[in-house]
Amino acid sequence: xxxxxxxxxxxxxxxxxxxxxxxxxxxxxxxxxxxxxxxxxxxxxxxxxxxxxxxxxxxxxxxxxxxxxxxxxxxxxxxxxxxxxxxxxxxxxxxxxxxxxxxxxxxxxxxxxxxxxxxxxxxxxxxxxxxxxxxxxxxxxxxxxxxxxxxxxxxxxxxxxxxxxxxxxxxxxxxxxxxxxxxxxxx
Length: 187
Known about the structure:
Blueprint: H1 26-29, E1 34-44, E2 49-59, E3 65-73, H2 77-80, E4 82-88, H3 96-115, H4 127-144, H5 176-179
Antiparallel strand pairs: 1-2, 2-3, 3-4
């Protein structure tokens, strides 16, 4: 996979001075659905305040991450702003053996957690909320026992992608789940 090129951060627009910042930037959204977070820090001396904005974006389809740090003086954002970007590639593809290990470790517990909530509303009642809560709860349990927790949801992506289907008509993908080796506990 090619290294991500730096984004045009359009610093002249001073998006980083807004609270909350206008992030992620439109140019980032062209790479697909993503989740993001940010954090502010500031240092004050006798003459001015230096602000730092640290942002991170993770693309849900690849799990690649970009982190951005923007620094500026409050009295002159345009004349003092500096920025740096770091790009972290998507994780390596899992082997069939690794996928089977993950299924054995998490699959039954994910399915059981979901089955135990039948008849209740989890979160806002959306399907993605159900699995997100399942993964969060199971991650806590795995950590308590010193085991590696499952990968937590990123937006509407849950875990490692093994199959993606778009049905042209209702029911047209019937039987494909079995052919693709989708098993109990797969999301």
